[in-house]
Amino acid sequence: MKRLAILLSGRGSNFEAIAANIARGSIDASIAVVLSNRRDARGLQIARERGLNAVALPSKGMDREAYDRGLIAELRKYSVDLVCLAGYMRLLSASFIREFPNRILNIHPSLLPAFPGLDAQHQALAYGVKVTGCTVHFVDEYLDAGPILLQAAVPVLDQDTEETLSARILAEEHRIYSEAIRIVLSGQYRIEGRRVILG
Questions:
Q1: SS3 track for 156-192
Q2: Do domains 1-101 and 107-199 have the same CATH topology?
Q3: What's the CATH code, domain 107-199?
Q4: Could you give the CA distance from residue 105 to residue 182 in angstroms, rounded to a whole number?
Q5: Which of 34, 39, 75 is nearest to 53 (CA)?
Q6: What are the angstrom distances between the C-alpha of 13 and each of 19, 158, 175?
Q7: Over the stretch 63-116, which tens digit does the pLDDT of each residue have?
Q8: What are the phi and psi torsion angles at 44 (to 5°)?
């Protein structure tokens, strides 16, 4: 059975959705470790309540390369097959990405390449777009720029606030992240340049 690592910095709602799908048997994998760069991340508490390995590796004040070396060492202990970023608020170093080539997924709350980085929902409202959504992509050395695996569109309503828009996007995130993990674990895809070809 494939072994997942979940990296998070906060509440961990995407982690909870993945864990629920594993428990239901709709993802054939186990969560080997949930790891956070913040000791107080709610996701760590949820992981402990689920009986999962939960590890805090505080990053405050640490150099990125040095921190990521510790992160790599921790993940090696758990023989991880796939790294899933679920609200992990640190940029990964090139050395970390080379350690797990095409084995790191991220979920982002926009239709990339539109609105990369922080506050994607705020950016969508500020630009007045009529459609936004979320994207699961492979992680490369650039911010929110790796090959796109799945996307889901969410309409932007005239009365939307950041909170209402974020909630609708999050529901789609929970759906497509698990689907993307299933695709990657099944090996039913190939990468050609920037394109991910399914099937």
A1: CCCCCCHHHHHHHHHHHHHHHHHHHHHHHHHCCEEEE
A2: yes
A3: 3.40.50.170
A4: 12
A5: 34
A6: 10, 26, 12
A7: 999 999 999 999 999 999 999 999 999 999 999 999 999 999 999 999 999 999
A8: -65, -40
- Look at residue 27 and give its three-state secondary structure: coil
**Homologous superfamily of 1-101:** Formyl transferase, N-terminal domain (3.40.50.170)
pTM score above 0.90: yes
Q: Quote the CA–CA distance of 42 and 191 in Å, as a whole number.
A: 35
For residue 87, the one-letter residue type is G
The catalytic residues are 108
Over the stretch 102-147, which tens digit does the pLDDT of each residue have?
999 999 999 999 999 999 999 999 999 999 999 999 999 999 999 9
